[in-house]
Fold this sequence. Notes:
This protein has helices at 16-31, 39-45, 57-62, 93-129, 139-145, 155-160, 184-208, 214-220, 233-238, and strands at 37-38, 69-72, 79-82, 137-138, 167-170, 177-180, 211-213, 245-248, 257-260. By secondary structure, it is of the alpha+beta class. Strand 8 and strand 9 form a beta hairpin. Mean pLDDT is 87; it is low at 1-6.
Amino acid sequence: YGGGSGDGGPYVNSSAEQQENEWRHRLDRKLGKKQYMLLSTLGLQVPRPPLHPSTPLMDALGRDPLKRFVVFGDGPSMAVRRAGSEAPAALTSKQQARVDEEAKFLAKYKVRVEEEEKYRTKIAEHLRESGDPFRPQLLTDIGLELERPPIKVDMKLVLQNDPKKRFEIVGDASTHGVRMKKTEREEERDQEELEEDWRHRLDIFLSRQPQEGLLVLRHKVKRPDALSSRVNIKRLLQFDPHQRFELTGKGSNANIIVRKR
């Protein structure tokens, strides 16, 4: 298990090995000076790294190059202590009752996690099968079309808490919708298409008028609304893959003249 909101912020290291090392460091901090902690409790209190969504906690501890941890016990009583510390005595009846209670909670928690993931997978498939997964669909409509999980869930929260970050919630409270999030490469491809669309329209404009000032050109040929604000017209023309434009003049953009090559 793993993935509470307890210890530390987002994992920033990029490789799986770096993230596992950071995970062990956080587990070590959480264990602190305690005699021991139940493995299940430790796993819930320390979020697991995004590159280790299903790595068993016991395996990660066992691979510690510093040999800081000792895992002992079995079943729901499995626990971890620091290497070199004394093993705790057998659990008292009160401690055993607490272990049993936690085991019941974890069993319910595991079922909830599995059912929420099944529901997310159904919604993702539904959006893809619609023909345009990036067109928002109302949550209320999806709720009517798809069979709901056997447990009570809030669809919006289930989608917002997706570990894989596949969904984007849009609209206001009365008309919340969801669409699939585009991958970074898909976003880049969309921006490249918008850039080329603007260049193409600039090219057509200059076919009718041999030259024009850069600022006037920017005013007369509107940039695509969805194009990133980081893209400016000067760089757009300078880095045209087809080299259709010639820019002359120095200094500010007001002095730049654009011609077709």
